[in-house]
Write the structure tokens for this entry.
Amino acid sequence: MKILVIEDEHKVAEALKEGLEHESYAVDIAHTGEDGFFLLNSKQYNLLLLDLMLPGRDGIEILKTIRDKKLDIPVLILTARDTVEDRVLGLDSGADDYLVKPFAFPELLARIRVLLKRGKEKQTSRLQLADLEMDLIKRKVKRSGKDIALTLREFDLLEYLLRNQNQIVSREMLAADVWKETNRATPIDNLIDVHIARMRRKIDDPFETKLLHTVRGVGFIFSEDTP
Amino acid sequence: MSFLPKNIRTRLTLWYVLALTFILLLYAGVSITLVYINLRNNLDDQLQQDYEIVENLIRIMPNGTVHIDSDDDPYFHERWFQIWSADWKLLYESRSFTGKILPPISKSVETTDGFHSYSLQLKNNVDLRVLSGKINIDGKWLFIRLVRDEESLWNQLSNFMRLMLIALPVAIILAGFGGYFLTKKFLSPIDEIADKARRIGEENLKERLPVINPDDEFGNLARVFNEMLERIQKSFVRLKRFTSDAAHELRTPLTAIRSIGEVALQDYKDAKYYREIIGSMLEENRQLTHLVDNLLFLSRTEVKNFKTHLTKLELKSFTQETVEFINVLAEEKKQTIIVKCESEIIVNADRTLLQQALLNLLDNAIKYSPENSEILVKVNIAEDNSAVIEVKDNGPGIPGEHLVKIFERFYRVDKGRSREMGGSGLGLAIARRAITAQGGTLTVKSEVGVGSSFKIIL
């Protein structure tokens, strides 16, 4: 899977390249709109990460040219501008998704997976990690055969963690996907932390192997291995 | 109006002179007419006297001819008159008529009863005033027609007009100059105000425009401008304080990131140690991000044309949902949040903004109330028909001197404690903006040692 990153900020571009290569993507970087457009025309890419504020031709212009030329490549916009109008402009110009800077890297990975159809949620009735099982139809959770009672919110949270197992999930992702809270000025970090702590008490504390781990400064990971 | 001069002084003078000219012309016209009428009336009076004299001079001879007793009248030779018979024949004409031929008497007008006076112009431009009347002498009807030259009338009138023609322009020119200098005098405060205003800038906003006479229009203008300067100055001060406050707030996490990083690089440690360090730096980064997000929210909602998305919202279930959302934080402190709402209340509100405000209020109430206490959320309709959500806690209360300032950005009652609890000092500012942006108000009442009560009024 090849990804093109058009981003003028060198440090950010390098960090993206390194992070994405760690996830086994092949990454090319362009620092200007012109370079990016040249690369797009000369090579095949599976995804474009596009910064909107670029020197010379800006991101929206590039996006429009791509869509005018009928290039069928998924585009994920990265931008510091996050008003509703900015989002609408970006999506109207032909972007597939929109991520506001500063973003959490795990969230970027999650969005990329969705765009590349890798992370498409399987239609399933059961989710499982190690000896933890979730029955989505009966809405029941068992660990080592023992029933665990969860509140509605805890169930949603655990389902999300199971679906994204072995991947870091950030608090922003939980806020948006489990709590449906998209307003960035409403910080619910402490709320999430309390829920995670309660979840731990129910699914981890009575058992030998811990599944829910905190990755300090980044978020959480639901995995058998300690990170 | 490009043909008008640009400066107000000239323009005022011009208008003034135009108005004055118009009025004087009107005045001249009226007075000339009045003088003319007056002179003509005098002439008619003289003719009337003539008539009475001539009337008594007429004798009818036994043969039917007319005889005039000219000896009885010392001015007889100066009089012009004709005597006509009832069948339109000229019976007598005074000598002065020599060389002047009057048109025959008008049958339709002059022969009716009473007196008739009119003006007449002969072919050689001689203007005459005529008076005619019907009279019965010894049973015989006659017409007497008296004439006087209008020359002296017209002479007097043209003298009067000449006088006007000279006097009017002189008056107008004098008035124009006078007006020009008076306008200059009256408009001088404007120059002073403009002069001062030009010199007031960002660095001397404290200065004010001169108020020369506080009761006149210019004084009023200067005063209004001064009030505006006052407001601008205040908002400048607020802005400056905000900028420095924001910089200070940003400094705290920046300092932490820097110190953590520098200390970590002092020694060579294992990977686990560095992971911790980086994690801790990222936590500080989160703080910074939140701060910037909050500031962006405030600046965005403070724009005048900020768009809210008002929808019909049922307050009872909305409040219950919001409390449910945050309740876990209260549970951690063994606090109970009680929602009291008698009936369903429908309001027009922006759900996201309202929830944000209520969450911030609840978050504060939970943070500042002791363990095992109660927080009351009351939803009801006030007497003036507005919907009220009240959040009442049993916290320490807010002292009066802080109460007016708690909605200001970065204002904290207890600086150290608030930061320790993860507060950015923006929660209440955001709550108030979220409410005022949709036309509501957020008020606070508090008693030290008893608790605080915040009211969202929609």
User: Anything to note?
Assistant: The domain at 2-115 of chain A is CATH 3.40.50.2300 (Rossmann fold).
